[in-house]
Amino acid sequence: MSLCSIRLLSAIALCIASFGASAADKPGVVIYATGGTIAGASKSNTDTTNYTAGSLGIDVLIKAVPELNDVATVSGEQISNVSSSNVSSAILLKLSKAINAKLAAPDIHGAVVTHGTDTLEESALFLDLTVKSSKPVVIVGAMRPATAISADGPMNLLEAVALAASKDAENRGAMVLLNDRFASAYYVTKTNSTVVDTFRAVEQGYLGMFTGTVPHFYYEAAKPVGKPFFDVSKTESLPRVDVIYTYEDQDIALIDAAIAAGAKGIVIAGSGNGAMTAAVKAKVAELSKKGFPVVVSTRTGSGFVSKKEAGIGSGFMNPQKARILLMLAINDGASDEKIRSYFGTF
Ligand code: SIN
User: Fold this and answer.
1) Which residues contact 220 (CB under 8 A, 6 or more apart)?
2) Which of 286, 287, 275, 285 shows the shortest CA–CA distance to 247?
3) In the chain, is it the N or the C terminus that has fewer CB atoms within a 10 Å radius of its CB?
4) Largest CA distance in the chain
5) Residue 184: strand pairing partners
6) What's the rounded Cα separation, in Å, for the pair 224 and 266?
7) Which numbered atom of ligand 1 lies nearest the CA of 141?
8) For the whole model, what pTM was predicted?
9) Ligand 1 mean position to 194 CA, how many Å?
């Protein structure tokens, strides 16, 4: 289906929807668009892998779902329009500052961020740790581009806005929504490269699910144990933290290269419960003694990495999430003991 056909269908749907009730009395929800597959387009409606992510603007996304007006008074802001692999810490800082400022307004009930799914969990954790508000922040993506048969983006966007407009969604931190289910941004991760039910919090589960545009919560509002807050209102850039994946026979060349490139911290994606080769472990121990922070996570995809002899166990943070938390901790000037407390492994 071409973009023209999408716009035509949207325009017809908009006319039908305009016969309904006005949206003026609905909760205010701001949608921040960053790009990704939810804004992706292809010449073929069966193409779900070779499309261009970040092709459509926020206005097109909003117009394509006139039902948004049934659940909220919606406004949109384009923060970037990139595939999520190109979301930078500069984009994250811009996004966090914009959301913090907007949620302070009394007429705004919540924020939605449209984002590519590949690194969505990293940005979602960043927002969870840097937005100070009891109001809902919902990060949403799609696995199929807007031009695909059965595109999942429009329904995901509608549910995300309905969640951000919901009173029950307050005091839960940032949440990630796709495929009718939503989970805590602190724990959720992408578990499959292509299927639509890819987002899971493997150990902690979902917070709730949707029927139509109604969110159903499984639990009362709660905060992840030990979740810190970082004020980035005056931060212009974040310290470099590199992730190094472990494997058999590994030497210390990648660690040395990361430090030479300017890394101020390193995350090791260790095997099992954060295991490393003897050479890497000795290097990590040496760096730790010098006060250089090394967090040791796991490449297994789930589980807890406990207190380590060398380095700081990452607790429940997978390597990519550990990188976000370590960047923020270093930026804050946190001591070794404080960093350990953030990861829950002291
Ligand atoms: C991306 O992450 O930008 C592309 C993939 C996706 O959004 O699913």
Assistant:
1) none
2) 275
3) C
4) 69
5) 175
6) 24
7) 7
8) 0.93
9) 10
Tell whether ligand 1 has an atom less than 6 A from the beta carbon of residue 118: yes
Q: Ligand 1 pocket, 298 CB below 6 A?
A: no
Residue 128 φ then ψ, to 5°: -60, -35
Does the structure show a pLDDT above 70 at 23?
A: no
**Residue 266 one-letter amino acid:** I
143 lines ligand 1 (CB under 6 A): yes
pLDDT at 15 over 90: no
Q: What 3-state class would DSSP assign to 317? A: coil
What is the C-alpha end-to-end distance of the chain, expressed in Å? 55
d(CA 76, CA 61): 9
pLDDT value, residue 236: 98
Whether 52 is catalytic is: no
Sign, Cα dihedral of 273, 276, 278, 284? negative
Question: Of the listed 34, 37, 298, 345, which one is catalytic?
Answer: 37
Ligand 1 site, residue 153, Cβ cutoff 6 A: no
Question: Closest ligand 1 atom, CA of 40?
Answer: 7
Average of pLDDT values for 287-304? 98
Contact (CB, 8 A) for 90 and 46? no
User: Tokens at residue 120, please?
Assistant: 């969505």
The whole-number pLDDT of residue 4 equals 43
Question: What domains, with CATH codes, occur in the chain?
Answer: 26-217 (3.40.50.1170), 241-343 (3.40.50.40)
SS3 311: coil
Q: For a substitution probing ligand 1, which of 80, 85, 117 has the most ligand atoms within 8 Å of its CB? A: 117
Kindly give the interhelix angle for 278-289 and 253-260, rounded to the nearest 10 degrees. Answer: 30
Nearest CA, atom 1, ligand 1:
116
- Residue of 47, 79, 88, 118 with the most ligand 1 atoms within 8 Å of its CB, for mutation: 118
